[in-house]
Design goal:
The structure holds 2 protein chains of 2 kinds. Helix content of chain A is about 70%, strand content about 0%. By secondary structure, chain A is mainly α. Chain A is globular, with a radius of gyration of 24 Å. Chain B is built from 12 helices and 2 strands, in the order αββααααααααααα. Chain B starts with 10 loop residues before the first helix and ends with a helix. Chain B is globular. By secondary structure, chain B is mainly alpha-helical. Chain B has one domain: MetI-like fold (Orthogonal Bundle). In chain B, helix 3 packs antiparallel against helix 9, helix 7 packs across helix 9 and helix 11 packs antiparallel against helix 12. The chains are: A mainly alpha, B mainly alpha. Chain A: It holds the Pfam family BPD_transp_1.
């Protein structure tokens, strides 16, 4: 099939090899920053501060990673990893749950204020958290939610992108299913649990991948509201590991932390590639 | 589009939307309203009272040399990020599309940077170009080029652009690759029979067919470079040197949190709100159009 699809316009021989060469070059260039960070996380500090640093891994991997994980600079990286995990999962699950419920309501019910609600969620699509940071910070501080998981999570699930997506999907569910459920006397929530939720499984999974990475990679918001190092997330905590002033940064530990910070999202993206691509395309439509 | 079959009642749907309404109201609409409201006031230095100034904050901002400079910086930054992430991505996608076997492996490898947070990307690139320990800056030094993004505004801009564009290559690659796979082979083969070479076919047939995807990515990448690159700029340059990398979102942060100038920061938020509004409208208009195709 693939053969047939390319058919006669497929270049053979030199052209094909050249294509591979370009691809490999591209991958190498794009990979280089990650490779360098990995190498830096396996060598000693003196090897780095006397440039050029080696381009092949050293033997200090265990030392650097255990120092990062259990001692860290301000706080052990293990703590930051747990905070990031709670935040990313909290955002993904929280947003999916509230969106499933409200999308179900606007698609399967006619209630007063439905149109207003629809426009309301439409508006939230337009304003990223970066734009309203100062007043949002004041609200969170007013609730006493600085340095708390609630403060990290809630403001980031306030936009209704996911509601929009689920609405689009629910509209494609055949009407006959709802009709049958009604004839059988099933309650709306019964229909929701037994039909709508199972049918949305793939969409939920794809959205989970996207939202997990979105949550994990947050920087500005955790930077503002976690003043206590114990609540730092790993992505924002790395910047805090650089010394102020002229001191030399502990590069091996910082680079080990960078690698640790990218492992969870990379695992999610690479292992769930299909779902990830689907989620990407869905959420941009 | 509406459902023909609906359930009755209003209490249940009200309960179903309650969590979303509550969270959006408290963490979205109230703060957004506050931003608009605060933009009309100047608080006194002790934060005890504030004086209504109408559009005074906006008037001041638009006359402010630094704010106008920040607009220009943002424009330059987002154009460069968009170009530096889309052109390599398109090239790689075209290459991958020519392969019968192995494009999946390359795709898996190229996806990686997408998962790397902008702030982490900032740290990685800072490490490569660090004036003291950076490998790339060391080799540049050997070639006789003295790299110093801490002092040189142009180099600082170049570095934040590279670090921001890097992760986006993955994203753009995925969309270009998907679009290329959807180009009908019969059209390509017809052109090949007429003797059109690869690059001729690319410029005259493939690229025009890709234009919806290209336009979509243009908008999305501009939005990205406006709002999601804060981490890159904060980790690498903190807006410096001499504000040469202070983009609009960074200025909202530095004026609001570092400078504690709430009136100005809020007015900047409101201006950004209009900018996002415009971009969203462009995006939706375009999506509407694409649906009809």
């Amino acid at each position: 099939m693939a053969q047939e699809r390319h058919g006669m316009v497929e270049k053979r021989g030199a052209g094909l090899w050249l294509t591979h060469v370009f691809m490999i070059l591209g991958v190498l260039i794009i990979f280089f920053p990650i490779w360098l960070a990995f190498v830096a996380s396996t060598v000693t500090q003196p090897e780095i501060v006397k440039p050029p640093m080696p381009l092949w891994p050293g033997d200090q991997m265990w030392e650097n990673y255990s120092k990062a994980l259990f001692a860290g600079v301000n706080v052990p990286v293990t703590t930051m990893l747990i905070n990031s995990l709670v935040m990313a999962i909290g955002i993904a699950v929280g947003k999916i749950v509230i969106s499933l419920l409200s999308a179900f309501a606007i698609v399967y019910f006619r209630f007063p204020g439905r149109n207003m609600f629809f426009w309301m969620i439409f508006l939230t699509l337009m304003l990223p958290v970066e734009v309203r940071i100062v007043p949002t910070y004041e609200v969170v501080a007013g609730f006493g939610m600085l340095n708390s998981y609630g403060g990290l999570i809630f403001p980031l699930i306030a936009s209704a992108t996911a509601t929009f997506l689920f609405r689009q999907f629910f509209l494609t569910i055949p009407d006959e299913l709802a009709e049958a459920a009604r004839v059988d006397g099933a309650s709306p929530m019964r229909f929701f649990w037994d039909i709508v939720v199972p049918m949305s499984r793939t969409n939920v999974a794809a959205l989970f991948v996207i939202l997990f990475i979105y949550g994990w990679n947050q920087y500005l918001w955790p930077l503002l509201i976690t003043t206590d190092p114990e609540m730092n997330t790993i992505v924002m905590g790395i910047k805090q590991m650089f010394p102020s002033g002229d001191d030399v940064a502990d590069w091996p530990v910082i680079m080990a932390t960078s690698i640790l910070a990218m492992i969870p999202p990379v695992i999610v993206v690479v292992s769930m590639q299909r779902l990830f691509i689907r989620g990407l395309v869905d959420s941009e439509k | 589009m509406e459902k023909r079959v609906v359930f009755r009642g209003w209490l249940l749907p009200a309960l179903l939307i309650a969590p979303q309404v509550f969270i959006s109201a408290v963490f979205f609409f109230y703060p957004a309203g506050q931003a608009i409201w605060q933009s009309l006031f100047i608080p006194d230095p002790f934060g005890l009272s504030s004086q209504f100034v109408g559009l005074g904050n906006f008037e001041y901002l638009l006359g402010d040399r630094f704010y106008r400079a920040s607009f220009v910086t943002t424009a330059v930054f987002s154009i460069l990020v968009t170009l530096c992430s889309m052109i390599p991505a398109l090239f790689l996608a075209v290459m991958a599309d020519r392969l019968i076997k192995g494009s999946g492996v390359y795709r898996t490898m190229l996806i990686w940077p997408y998962a790397v947070a902008p702030a982490i990307a900032g740290v990685l690139w800072l490490f490569m170009f660090n004036t003291r320990v950076g490998v790339v800056s060391w080799y540049l030094g050997n070639l006789g080029y003295d790299w110093n993004h801490v002092l040189n505004g142009g180099e600082a801009m170049g570095l934040v652009v590279l670090a921001s564009a890097w992760g986006r290559i993955s994203y753009n690659f995925l969309f270009f690759f998907a679009a290329l796979q959807a180009v009908p082979r019969s059209v390509i083969e017809a052109a090949a029979i007429d003797g059109a070479h690869f690059w001729t076919r690319f410029w005259t047939i493939v690229l025009p067919l890709l234009s919806p995807t290209t336009f979509f990515l243009l908008v999305v990448n501009v939005v990205y470079s406006f709002f999601e690159t804060f981490g890159v700029i904060h980790t690498i340059t903190s807006g410096g040197p001499q504000q040469s990398t202070t983009v609009l979102v960074y200025k909202v942060f530095s004026d609001g949190f570092v400078g504690q100038d709430l009136g100005s920061s809020s007015a900047q938020s409101v201006i950004l709100l209009f900018v996002v509004g415009m971009l969203t409208i462009i995006q939706f208009k375009f999506v509407e159009k694409r649906v009809h195709y």
